[in-house]
Amino acid sequence: MMQGNTALVDDFVHHTPQLIDRFEASLDSGDWNALFGTTQRLMSSFRLLQETDAIDSLRVLSEERVNAMTAKERSLLCQRLRAVVEAFA
């Protein structure tokens, strides 16, 4: 799907890290409404590039699961998401 569409990949690489930053801030602050919205936008971005592992990591999040995550777990999740983006850079 993405073969030859460098503009879309470039857009993904440029904008997705900012979404991940917002996602991480929402995770850390416990702002479920902001987290939900950012998660939906991230899943849409990862879906364009068919990154199912990243989508699956986001899809399983619930308010209860997020509240139970340690700071280290939250950080590792964001690191994994950033690594997916960096693979396209």
Question: What is this entry, summarized?
Answer:
The protein is mainly alpha-helical and 89 residues long.
Number of helices: 5
Mean pLDDT: 92
Largest sheet: none
- Distance between the ends: 17 Å
Beta-strand content: under 5%
Radius of gyration: 13 Å
Low-pLDDT runs of 5+ residues are none
Structural class: mainly alpha
Q: Count all strands and give the number.
A: 0
From the spread of the alpha carbons, the general shape counts as elongated
Q: What proportion of the residues is helical, as a percent range?
A: over 70%
| Series of H and E elements | HHHHH
Can you tell me about this structure?
The protein is built from five helices and no strands. With 89 residues, it is mainly alpha-helical. Helix 1 packs antiparallel against helix 2 (32-48).
